[in-house]
Write a structure and sequence with these properties.
Strand content: 15-25%
Number of domains: 2
Oligomer: single chain
CATH class of the largest domain: Alpha Beta
CATH topology of the largest domain: D-Maltodextrin-Binding Protein, domain 2
Shape: globular
Number of helices: 10
Radius of gyration: 28 Å
Helix content: 25-40%
Order of helices and strands: HHEEEHEHEHEEEHEHEHEEHHE
Structural class: alpha+beta
Length: 281
Amino acid sequence: MKLSHLALVVALSAVTAFAVSKYTAAPAPSAAKQETAFERVMRTGTLRCGYIISPPFLAVDPATGTKSGLAIDYVTAIGRELGLKIEWAEEVGWGVFAEGLKAGRYDALCYPLWEAGQRAKVALFTTPLYDSDLSMLSRADDMRFKDGLKSINKTDVIMATVEGDVSQALHAQQFPLTKELALPAGTDSGQYFMNIVTRKADVGPVFKYEMEKFNENSPTKLKIIGNNEPVQSFRTGLTVAQGEVNLKLMLDSAIHTLLRSGEAATIIAKYPGVSVPLNQN
């Protein structure tokens, strides 16, 4: 090949390479890594909390908006231990709390929940804050349950539950013969109790202290079925979104510190029916 021909081939190759590089689409930039809740908490110094209103664990004064209760006291102490500001970001319901965690609307549900299999499928539990007993209640004038818990599981009994709540698992596992009145997710304790007061349901699971507070202001009284026999005992913890292991571990460390220093025991001593976890691991 003559030198002139060779030069022409080289020139054409360069032009072709330039055209290809110019008109070939550049690869799309990779999607930016989404910030985790743990990273957001560390960056802002703030733990954004979802919460459930259910006295005495968490109550809101309707006149001032001031929040109080066991959850407020405990989470405030956790925030102080970690040097974090606590922001009470959003009120949620028992059956839908995991949706806000997944969407990132808040970093943790700062209301202690009973550990249960269905909840463990949608969120990570922290180490337990305390242990609590769940009892069954009825109207005080209903005499059908004098033989205790064993007298509940009958076809003429209606049991109140809340959709997505552990009460539904309790119904299926221990009282399958009873009819179920499934109340909407987010039903508060006052509405729950009123369904039993108004005879729409006959029995339902309850934390005893909540029932006692309801009885203080209700002309129709409720009672615990049996001789204070718990239907089930639960460990209770805060929850974070699935995958947020670092955030869970950080909260665990603060909870362990409060338990071992005795401060947790001081906080929960004001609330009958809860106790320091026997196993603090």
